[in-house]
Amino acid sequence: MQINLTGHHVEITDALRDYVNSKFTKLERHFDHITNAHVILNVEKLQQIAEAKLNVSGGEVFANAQHENMYAAIDGLIDKLDRQIIKHKEKLKKI
Questions:
Q1: How far apart are CA 71 and CA 67, in angstroms?
Q2: Rounded distance, CA 76 to CA 65, Å?
Q3: Residue 52: how many other CB atoms lie within 10 Å
Q4: Half-sphere exposure (CA, 13 Å, Cβ side) for 15?
Q5: Quick one: pLDDT at residue 92?
Q6: What is the pLDDT of residues 58-73, one digit of tens each?
Q7: Average confidence (pLDDT) over 8-13
Q8: Given its phi and psi angles, is residue 15 left (phi above 0), alpha (psi -120 to 50 degrees) or beta?
């Protein structure tokens, strides 16, 4: 899986990049047909926003999460994506 990481009003440090990469490996364990992930980390006043669009076989999955802490926002984003990936995988099994 190729991960494109973009920061708006935030500097992407090595620690943030490693954290995002380690969290996205969790998604690959559930569904290995993820081809591309575009992750945007954004800061608006006191809210840290993480959003991602995944290109998967059979469609796209999008989610976003907000929190006061960027790492917590990334955790929330991964949880949402994980639920959507599992739901997408179940849909593919039914077809």
A1: 9
A2: 6
A3: 25
A4: 4
A5: 83
A6: 789 999 999 999 999 9
A7: 93
A8: alpha
Residue 35 one-letter amino acid: T
Average pLDDT over residues 27-35: 85
CB 27 within 8 A of CB 81: yes
CB atoms within 10 A of CB 39: 24
Task: Say which amino acid occupies 25.
Answer: T
Angle subtended by helix axes 14-30 and 70-94, to nearest 10: 20
Angle at 27 between CA 25 and CA 28, to 5 degrees: 65
Question: Residue 95 — pLDDT band, cuts 50, 70, 90?
Answer: low
Report how far residue 73's alpha carbon sits from residue 62's, in angstroms, rounded to the nearest whole number: 15
* Helices (runs of H) and strands (runs of E) counted in the chain: 2, 4
